[in-house]
């Protein structure tokens, strides 16, 4: 049995280099081809064995949380811990607080299309598996991750990968270059469900999604400029329909010399590819000066998925 009483896992945000969205399926999901890319913006999830003398109720949050992050059992990280607990033998009637004290430090933008909630769920799975000495490998946790959400398995894997079906069926992709990013954060969030509803309205006869070979060739060749040209998101028109001001942000990035720009996932964060780290800092300053976004953050990728830093 492990002697660890505290485990901390660091987990990255993602940007979608390609998001091809097919027609709606009978189960309500859409068939996707989703090229995920993990970037160096991290949340940290810490789990501790509960101290009955100093019990913490619910979930402890710190960092850039905002009001959209639940602090109860509806939080995806709490759901991940409960799912794993049930799979290893804990049944109904056991309160999660009797098993683990869950603390989340957030740096991934909330409701920004960068899968922060999914990242926290992946981190909670790995952290609890370590704390409880379940013996699960990352690959063995992946099916549980898929039950929690379409983006959760990638947060475990990290690096660069293509996700098919609803995004949970992952195949690693080769990326031979470090890509430097600027993320322009917007005022407020966007509901993923609303964006998909707008997509269905705008594109009622969506074709079956296909992987961009121009993108995979550019990643394999390490050609950042070609990657920038190949960025594509089928949900972008829907996000712009709901938040027209994002078009100004995308134009500001283009005017500032970005190699490419895209709405990340369902938005509203806009991602811009830079030539290198220095160019990323210059691009971030130009975007903030333009007044078209709330603020900017810089990052690079690809980076590994959920990783233990303590315990």
UniProtKB/TrEMBL annotation:
The keyword Endoplasmic reticulum does not apply. SUPFAM superfamilies: GHMP Kinase, C-terminal domain, Ribosomal protein S5 domain 2-like. Keywords: ATP-binding, Isoprene biosynthesis, Kinase, Nucleotide-binding, Transferase. GO terms for molecular function: 4-(cytidine 5'-diphospho)-2-C-methyl-D-erythritol kinase activity. It catalyses: 4-CDP-2-C-methyl-D-erythritol + ATP = 4-CDP-2-C-methyl-D-erythritol 2-phosphate + ADP + H(+). The keyword Glycoprotein does not apply. Belongs to the GHMP kinase family. IspE subfamily. This is 4-diphosphocytidyl-2-C-methyl-D-erythritol kinase.
